[in-house]
Amino acid sequence: MTLPLNERRGLNRQDAIDYLGIKGTYFDKEIRPLLRARKMGTSMVFDRLELDSVFEQIMLVGGDVGPTVKGATQWPKPQVLPKPKTAAGESIRPTKELDFKDVLRRIKQRKIGC
After folding, report:
1. Which CA distances in Å does 89 have to 15, 31, 86, 97, 103?
2. Chain-centre distance of CA 41, in angstroms?
3. Which of 5, 8, 32, 53 has the most crowded CB, counting CB atoms within 10 A?
4. Is 55 exposed, middle or buried (0-12, 13-18, 19+ CB in 10 A)?
5. CATH numbers and ranges of domains, the chain
6. How far apart are the C-alpha atoms of 51 and 40, rounded to whole Å?
7. What are the pLDDT digits (tens) for 37-88?
Protein backbone atom coordinates (compact mmCIF):
# COMPACT_ATOMS: atom_id res chain seq x y z
CA MET A 1 0.00 0.00 0.00
CA THR A 2 1.39 3.38 -1.00
CA LEU A 3 0.49 6.42 1.07
CA PRO A 4 -0.65 9.65 -0.60
CA LEU A 5 2.10 12.28 -0.96
CA ASN A 6 0.68 14.46 1.83
CA GLU A 7 0.92 11.55 4.30
CA ARG A 8 4.52 10.55 3.54
CA ARG A 9 7.32 12.14 5.53
CA GLY A 10 10.14 11.49 3.06
CA LEU A 11 9.78 12.22 -0.63
CA ASN A 12 12.14 11.47 -3.50
CA ARG A 13 12.85 14.18 -6.10
CA GLN A 14 9.92 13.35 -8.37
CA ASP A 15 7.50 13.00 -5.44
CA ALA A 16 8.70 16.37 -4.07
CA ILE A 17 8.09 17.97 -7.47
CA ASP A 18 4.62 16.41 -7.66
CA TYR A 19 3.87 17.39 -4.04
CA LEU A 20 4.71 21.05 -4.71
CA GLY A 21 3.05 21.01 -8.14
CA ILE A 22 6.03 22.58 -9.92
CA LYS A 23 8.31 21.77 -12.84
CA GLY A 24 11.55 19.84 -12.33
CA THR A 25 13.78 22.64 -13.63
CA TYR A 26 12.27 25.15 -11.17
CA PHE A 27 12.71 22.64 -8.35
CA ASP A 28 16.38 22.05 -9.23
CA LYS A 29 17.17 25.75 -9.70
CA GLU A 30 15.15 27.48 -6.96
CA ILE A 31 13.93 24.95 -4.39
CA ARG A 32 16.62 22.25 -4.18
CA PRO A 33 19.41 24.61 -2.99
CA LEU A 34 17.25 25.54 0.02
CA LEU A 35 16.69 21.93 1.10
CA ARG A 36 18.70 19.31 2.90
CA ALA A 37 18.43 15.86 1.41
CA ARG A 38 19.49 12.49 2.76
CA LYS A 39 20.63 9.61 0.59
CA MET A 40 18.57 6.54 1.39
CA GLY A 41 19.38 3.57 -0.79
CA THR A 42 19.59 4.88 -4.33
CA SER A 43 17.28 7.88 -3.74
CA MET A 44 17.80 11.34 -2.34
CA VAL A 45 14.98 11.87 0.15
CA PHE A 46 13.53 15.27 1.07
CA ASP A 47 11.59 16.00 4.25
CA ARG A 48 7.99 16.93 3.44
CA LEU A 49 7.88 19.35 6.39
CA GLU A 50 10.95 21.17 5.06
CA LEU A 51 9.30 21.33 1.62
CA ASP A 52 6.26 22.94 3.28
CA SER A 53 8.49 25.48 5.02
CA VAL A 54 10.31 26.48 1.82
CA PHE A 55 7.00 26.68 -0.05
CA GLU A 56 5.60 29.01 2.63
CA GLN A 57 8.71 31.24 2.37
CA ILE A 58 8.21 31.51 -1.39
CA MET A 59 4.53 32.34 -0.99
CA LEU A 60 5.36 35.07 1.57
CA VAL A 61 7.99 36.61 -0.69
CA GLY A 62 5.53 36.60 -3.57
CA GLY A 63 6.66 34.31 -6.32
CA ASP A 64 6.71 34.78 -10.07
CA VAL A 65 3.09 35.30 -11.10
CA GLY A 66 3.61 36.50 -14.65
CA PRO A 67 1.65 39.19 -16.46
CA THR A 68 -1.79 39.76 -14.96
CA VAL A 69 -3.08 41.90 -17.82
CA LYS A 70 -4.07 40.19 -21.06
CA GLY A 71 -1.42 40.83 -23.68
CA ALA A 72 1.14 42.14 -21.19
CA THR A 73 4.69 40.90 -21.72
CA GLN A 74 6.39 42.33 -18.65
CA TRP A 75 7.17 39.74 -15.96
CA PRO A 76 7.99 40.75 -12.38
CA LYS A 77 11.63 40.51 -11.31
CA PRO A 78 12.33 37.28 -9.41
CA GLN A 79 12.64 37.49 -5.64
CA VAL A 80 15.77 36.07 -4.05
CA LEU A 81 15.15 33.72 -1.14
CA PRO A 82 17.61 33.62 1.76
CA LYS A 83 20.12 30.78 1.58
CA PRO A 84 20.80 28.62 4.65
CA LYS A 85 23.48 30.31 6.78
CA THR A 86 26.77 28.47 7.16
CA ALA A 87 30.21 29.40 8.36
CA ALA A 88 33.04 29.71 5.85
CA GLY A 89 33.94 26.28 4.52
CA GLU A 90 31.04 24.58 6.30
CA SER A 91 28.77 22.22 4.43
CA ILE A 92 24.99 22.65 4.48
CA ARG A 93 24.66 18.89 4.29
CA PRO A 94 23.73 17.32 7.65
CA THR A 95 26.07 14.36 7.06
CA LYS A 96 29.44 16.09 7.47
CA GLU A 97 30.50 13.85 10.38
CA LEU A 98 29.85 10.72 8.33
CA ASP A 99 31.57 12.28 5.32
CA PHE A 100 34.63 13.13 7.42
CA LYS A 101 34.84 9.59 8.79
CA ASP A 102 34.58 8.17 5.28
CA VAL A 103 37.32 10.46 3.93
CA LEU A 104 39.55 9.71 6.92
CA ARG A 105 39.07 5.97 6.36
CA ARG A 106 39.99 6.32 2.68
CA ILE A 107 43.11 8.35 3.52
CA LYS A 108 44.26 5.72 6.00
CA GLN A 109 43.77 2.99 3.37
CA ARG A 110 45.89 4.80 0.75
CA LYS A 111 49.24 3.38 -0.16
CA ILE A 112 52.19 5.66 0.52
CA GLY A 113 53.38 7.43 -2.61
CA CYS A 114 49.99 7.30 -4.41
Report:
1. 31, 22, 8, 14, 16
2. 18
3. 32
4. middle
5. 5-64+77-86 (1.10.1660)
6. 17
7. 888 888 889 999 999 998 888 877 765 555 556 666 666 666 676 666 666 6
